[in-house]
Specification:
95 residues, flat, 82% helix, mainly alpha
């Protein structure tokens, strides 16, 4: 997240590209490590660790989804797309 933020704030095109490459490299390393944890025949892999990573990721996704659902009504109101029926549907979905 740090490099993505730095990329957004950078004014120099080369610096933005460097930050983007760094965040892409970190992302690929983390994806590879995650996959290795779940590989049954891996020397250092642990399925329990793979499951734990999934649990943390699921929790983060649920928090993000709930926050997103809280913000949708105000964004839709600003755009003029919000009505009572939509409010009921969003409330039902976010619980």
């Amino acid at each position: 997240m740090k490099y993505k933020q730095l990329r957004r704030e950078a004014e120099d095109k080369r610096l933005r590209r460097a930050y983007n490459l760094r965040q892409e490299a970190l992302k690929r390393i983390l994806i590879t490590c995650f996959g290795y944890l779940g590989y049954r025949n891996a020397r250092f892999g642990k399925v329990d660790a793979h499951i734990a990573v999934c649990a943390f990721a699921r929790e983060a996704l649920l928090k993000t989804a709930k926050e997103f659902m809280k913000r949708i009504p105000s964004a839709l109101k600003r755009l003029g797309y919000y009505d009572t029926k939509m409010k009921n549907n969003l409330t039902e979905f976010s619980n």
